[in-house]
Amino acid sequence: MSGGESETSMRDAINDALREELQRDESVYVVGEDVAEAGGSFGITRGLHEEFGEERVFDTPISEQAIVGSSAGAALTGSRPVAEIMYADFMALAAEQVMNQAGLFRYMFGGDATVPMTVRTVNGGSGFNAAAQHSKSLHGLFMGMPGVRVVLGSTVHDTKGLLKSAIRSDDPVLFFEHMELYNRTAEVPDGSYTLPLGEAAVEREGEDVTVVATQLMLHHSLDVAASLAEDGISVEVVSPRTMKPLDVETLVESARRTGRVVVADESTVQAGPGSYVARRIEEEAFYHLEAPVSVVGVDDTPVPFSPPLADAVVPGPDDIEDAIRSLPRL
Amino acid sequence: MPDGPPRDGDRVIEQLREMILVREFETRVSELFENNELPGFVHLYIGQEAVGVGACSAIRDEDYITSTHRGHGHAIAKGLDIDRMMAELFGKASGYCGGKSGSMHIADIDRGMLGANGIVGAGPPLAAGAGQSIRRRGEDRVCLSFFGEGAMAEGQVHEAMNLAGVRDLPVVFVCENNGYGEMTPAEEQHNVEGFLARGDVYGMPSEDVDGMDVRDVYDATSRAVERARDGEGPSLLVCETYRYRGHYEGDPTTYRTDEEVERWQERDPIETLTADLVEAGELVEADVESMRADARERVDEAVAFARESDMPDPETAFDGVYAEEL
After folding, report:
1. Using CA of residue B90, residue B324, residue A218, residue A251, what is the dihedral sign?
2. Reported ipTM
3. Is the pTM of the predicted complex or chain greater than 0.90?
4. How many inter-chain contacts (A to B, CB under 8 Å) are there?
5. Does B220 fall in a domain?
6. Which residues of B touch A27 (CB under 8 A)?
7. Strands annotated E in chain A
8. Do B125 and A113 touch (CB under 8 A)?
9. What domains sit in chain A, N to C, each tagged with a CATH number?
10. What range does the domain containing B254 cover?
11. Number of domains chain B contains
12. What's residue B136's pLDDT?
């Protein structure tokens, strides 16, 4: 390994992760709609079909239940499938195969079965005006399903390492990418690397406020933190990376230190992951907090089409900044 | 598996023995349930034994099956141990799943039994996935996917059949038409006569099978399995059969007549086969009585094993959710 770094897009980082795992383990295969010659709806799987052939990278009919259900069956029988579901919204169609099948097998069958299945899907989309059926962030739904891991792709660096670990995991993993992050670029290490599931990362250190942020909200939060630093407000930004299991310890440690917390996540606030993160922090850092944890997310409203409407519903940097500035005694 | 197929007569006698074991197991489960010895609820396979036994006797140990909520017969026919099955029904630690599954989720992945399943229609996509594993490894294994005709109204069954057809997966879809989807007659749930056309629309051969005759099921399954092993893709078998008991134990079955049940019982898979074998001089009535006695004794042992086993330690309720601790 050269030990160097290269500027890489999110799209290429995910493609590299898939290629490396396909090379490493012949039980890995990539399956989904338009993932073969078409290279995936977002171009993530480009070139993989040509390189690995029809047995390792192949298209299916438009059948989300069969994609995820067959992946669960393949995982039970010695394969390590990586399924692509084009939009998180479409996971509604395949929720059965996760919540009643893949997630339960190991437990229900007495603890011997393994289900090494990864489902990659795509949160977000309001920035592309994808409208209400192609814009939701739905990782929160799966956090309530025992037996499945829930992992988020937020930074280019982390997404590659986490996806490789997800594929190697013997448990079913729901891996949520974000539509508006595919073109983002960053320096990532050359060659193969993995990152542990279940560990949060402090993306920026600060003293006055902790912002726990996911996916696009993480990038907004880092921008806001940079600009607030000019006003003398020191913001720590933490990326949970894995939502289940959640690295509560790292979040709480930061919250105790800063005493003020904002959670920014593009899901609905009502019964959403942001509210769950807030509860866990309040439970364990209560006496260190200056105020209740503030949750920035989507109201109980579908994501609309027209740009001004979409901007009104989905939080942006201003909403995160407002939430921070509303905290007491800053 | 022994080398080469057994003489037909030997095989049929083994099939009879297996059907009798399933019948005795299920009859005892019914009694145990009636006596409140089993938690939860159970769905019995009595009347349909020829399908599970006929189909599973046409595959090898290393082949796979997916099953249903009415899965005891499939499990026994796939060679699962009835001690551990019965213990699971009792909710005991020694059960197949340590008391976590009960009747509806018994599985033994090492034996290729990919699980009974409480979700109607859930098996076929799993079977397609097993077929995918087989195809990727270039093996000549197959997966049988049992499901009731009620599941023919479930979307995921159609997705799975289409996917298996498109990818030539080595899956045999075994539809058991027992006349009722839960508590409603099949003809009120499907606007077609029979289910053979469901194979045509997914480009796979389909065959109408007498599900009350283990020989017919065995022959049809053998043809479909051979196609699958040869890489010619999936098939659909529609086995016409009948569920003697209700949808679940305790179902008052007000939706059908005693006459209808009796009409089907005249075609009982065990009685008719016995009569044929006796007439052919393959065995005498006393042989069948002795098979029945052996089966009862075997089931007695299973019940004793289950009763004597310990209930699971409540602490184990939290074990086995994940393969890896994070």
Report:
1. positive
2. 0.95
3. yes
4. 163
5. yes
6. 136
7. 5-9, 28-32, 57-59, 80-85, 118-123, 149-152, 173-178, 185-189, 201-204, 209-213, 235-239, 242-244, 261-268, 294-298
8. no
9. 5-189 (3.40.50.970), 201-325 (3.40.50.920)
10. 8-310
11. 1
12. 96
